[in-house]
Write a structure and sequence with these properties.
The chain is an alpha+beta fold. It has five domains: 129 residues, HPT domain (Four Helix Bundle (Hemerythrin (Met), subunit A)), CATH 1.20.120.160; 134 residues, Alpha-Beta Plaits, CATH 3.30.70; 60 residues; 179 residues, Heat Shock Protein 90 (2-Layer Sandwich); 137 residues, SH3 Domains (SH3 type barrels, Roll), CATH 2.30.30. The protein contains 24 helices and 23 strands.
């Protein structure tokens, strides 16, 4: 790919992140969060998109972003109120900006008529909001070059007839209090479409500024690099503000400039100013050498002022050092091994990461094969070969963990789309909804994240449309008018769990059952438990909506959610209490590449049970096994009973159930928290295996989640624990051995 195209692709990737931040910030403003930093973050997002678009000549995107940015600038300046209509307009502008970005990528063209209308609304909003500020005096902005470059026009003073150069003296009195900012931009600042003028305007919001330009480093035009930075500025800010407030004005260019901030000396503590004519006269006229008394008088006059200035400078420097290590603090940070700034990151093509993960998978398989060959050769455990093999196994695991961490990303990228979705559905249904999110930093494999968006979207739509009552219904039920939707992510037993809950009316089970009967999905005489009735929601074509709308009612959604999760090796469970609400729990593997499993034998087959589902293994006694009905058996485990499931019989590999006393039981826990005992013939050991999709390479097999390759080259099937438990009642095998009474 052409280098420019690579840079452009990176820009569009950053645009997606910036658009997400923009929408999240606007949603926070709409909820009443008036934190100025949120407004600044929203402004920076639009400003960054505009700057990058300008570098690539995307004029339509630049034009719209400029108008949008102007309105946001008025808002953060306080000249435009953060009212609800204004924020709603900016949310629509955010959607339009996203359309312009998509159009710039060569996707669907943006609606020019809608774009022009929004630009007119933003311009009108800006004019109305800034009308009251038109009479305010312009901010003080003075640019005074301290030196002119050779070869350029200059108004520099020239020596008079006797060789004296007139002094350039600022006749304005120094500020009563404030800060002196020395600002030297790096070339990266201009490369990122930034400019010095907006930075100075930020300072002018704090108070009057006297800006002095230093052009001493400006070379001749014939040797000038157009992308280099030659100028620097000294800015005297007359404002009674904190150092942090000054630092915040340069936050957007942090790392792209050299910045020092020093406190100015108040007038009352500064040495007395001398008249200009007196200075010139003293400079022109020779004077006799001062006496010792005169020298001491000068010292007594100057030292107190210098000492005050040094004390203030030292205090300011220590304040800067505590927040931003620089100077002597930087070597100390380097010696201590602590990072002195934000960690550096790089963008890597996802295909390269996938290729690396595939290679790590092959490494795991080859390491297992090597271990198998060495074990068959009869080497002693203490031999150097076995010790080296153990080291290789440990190293392989560390490499695998590190590579998987590269793909791990927080679920925030999915969660941050939900507030806007909830807002739109609440407006269309006339309901009041508050969204609560938890665990946005929970990390999971990128592949899982990409495929989580649709299931979560379906669940949220159903929670708002079906789960929550209208405000009138909630008040009648003794609830607040505002309903609560909770979206949470957490790690549990090596898996990621996503919970979508609401405090609505819960599932109307009699109605669900009747709808299933009317649609012919169940027999009218069927006896179903509450959980089985709840699971009717996942049947294809099932819908409780009485009318078809743009939100729901067409009988698709919940079955799509279930199939999507099953394709990821996940499960979904429902817990509902009438009148109190419902909770939908989705459980998925953290990664789709490698898992730790226990290798077992069932008949002539080798299987792998996921280690995250296993609680313990045990050798059952005949007295621990009890019959339950004509075919089912349970196993007594420490004052409780667990269903005993013969894996070989459930999967159809033998007609007669095996004798538990001759096998091994694996006590497992399913996603709903229930326990069961899986009966296998033998346990070979624990291994790390690489997951290979069975559906992609063969077909879907009930009770089997995926496949893997063992160290001896054989293919082993990975057990789907939940599916095996669900199949236990469908096994035709029956026990043929004696059980304890």
């Amino acid at each position: 790919m052409d280098p420019m195209e690579q840079i452009k692709a990176t820009f569009f990737q950053e645009c997606q992140e910036l658009l997400a931040d923009l929408e999240a910030g606007l949603m926070a403003l709409e909820t009443g969060d008036n934190d100025p930093e949120i407004v600044n973050a929203v402004f920076r997002a639009v400003h960054s998109i505009k700057g990058g678009a300008g570098a690539f000549g995307l004029e339509e995107l630049v034009s719209f972003a400029h108008v949008f940015e102007t309105a946001l600038d008025e808002m953060r300046a306080g000249r435009l109120a953060m009212s609800t209509p204004a924020v709603k307009l900016m949310l629509r502008a955010s959607d339009m900006l996203s359309d312009h970005v998509s159009a710039a990528q060569g996707q669907t063209p943006a609606d020019e008529q809608r774009s022009s209308a929004l630009m007119a609304e933003l311009a009108a909003l800006t004019q109305d909001g800034s009308a009251s500020a038109a009479a305010e005096p312009p901010p003080a902005f003075i640019a005074v070059p301290s030196a002119a470059s050779p070869g350029l026009d200059s108004d520099e003073p020239v020596p008079d007839e006797i060789g004296f150069v007139p002094l350039r003296v600022n006749l304005d009195p120094p500020p009563a209090s404030g800060w002196r900012i020395c600002f030297t931009p790096a070339s990266d600042l201009y490369a990122k479409a930034n400019d010095v003028t907006p930075l100075v305007r930020e300072l002018e919001r704090l108070g009057p500024c006297a800006v002095h330009l230093n052009a001493e480093g400006l070379p001749d035009l014939d040797v000038m690099d157009p992308e280099a930075a030659y100028l620097n500025w000294t800015i005297d800010l007359s404002a009674d503000c904190s150092r942090d407030a000054v630092q915040a004005a340069f936050e957007f260019v942090d790392g792209d400039c050299d910045l020092t901030i020093e406190a100015l000396v108040p007038v009352s503590q500064a040495p007395p100013a001398m008249d200009l004519e007196s200075v010139l006269a003293q400079a022109r006229m020779p004077s006799p050498p001062p006496s010792d008394g005169e020298i001491q008088a000068i010292i007594d006059q100057v030292v107190p002022s210098v000492q005050v200035h040094m004390d203030q400078t030292k205090a300011g420097a220590s304040s800067v050092s505590s927040d931003h290590p620089q100077g002597d603090a930087a070597p100390d940070a380097a010696r201590s091994g602590q990072p002195s700034g934000p960690q550096a990151t790089i963008r890597v093509d996802l295909d390269r990461v996938d290729r690396l993960i595939d290679l790590v998978g092959e490494l795991v398989i080859n390491q297992a094969m090597l271990a198998q060959r060495v074990a068959e050769s009869g080497f002693a455990r203490s031999s150097t070969v076995m010790v080296g093999l153990d080291d290789l196994e440990q190293l392989t695991r560390e490499i695998q963990d590190s590579v998987m961490a590269i793909r791990a990303q927080p679920v925030k990228s999915v969660f941050q789309r939900i507030p806007r979705l909830v807002r739109e559905i609440a407006l269309s249904t006339g309901k009041r909804v508050r969204l609560v999110t938890e665990g946005e930093g929970t990390e999971v494999d990128k592949t899982v994240i990409e495929r989580l968006s649709d299931p979560i979207t379906h669940m949220i739509r159903n929670a708002v449309d079906h789960g929550l009552e209208t405000p009138a219904e909630r008040v009648a039920a003794g609830k607040p008018e505002e309903g609560v939707i909770r979206l949470a992510a957490l790690h549990r037993s090596g898996r990621i769990v996503i919970e979508v809950s609401d405090d609505g009316k819960g599932i109307n089970r009699p109605r669900v059952r009747q709808i299933a009967i009317d649609k012919g999905l169940i027999d009218p005489d069927a006896q179903l438990t509450d959980d089985e009735i709840d699971n009717l929601l996942f049947l294809p074509g099932f819908s409780t909506a009485s009318t078809i709308s743009n939100i729901s009612g067409r009988g698709v959604g919940m079955d799509v959610v279930k199939r999507s999760l099953q394709a990821l090796g996940g499960r979904i469970a429902i817990a509902s209490t009438p009148g109190q609400g419902s909770t939908f729990t989705m459980s998925l593997p953290l990664t789709l590449a490698v898992l730790d499993g226990m290798v077992v034998t069932v008949g002539d087959q080798t299987l792998v049970a996921p280690l995250t589902s296993i609680i313990e293994t045990l050798q059952p006694k005949p007295s621990d096994v009890r019959l339950l009905g004509p075919q089912s058996r349970v196993l007594a485990v420490r004052d409780t009973y667990a269903p005993l499931i013969d894996v070989g019989a459930v999967l159809g590999w033998r007609e007669q159930a095996a004798n538990p006393a001759e096998g091994v039981c694996i006590l497992v826990e399913n996603e709903a928290g229930g326990r069961a005992a899986l009966l296998v013939d033998t346990i070979q050991g624990q291994r790390q295996v690489v997951i290979k999709s069975l559906e992609a390479n063969f077909q879907d097999v009930p009770g089997i989640a995926a496949a893997t390759i063992l160290g001896d080259g054989r293919v082993a099937l990975i057990i789907d624990v939940d599916a095996v438990i669900a199949l236990r009642g469908k096994s035709p095998a029956s026990p043929t051995f004696a059980l304890a009474s």
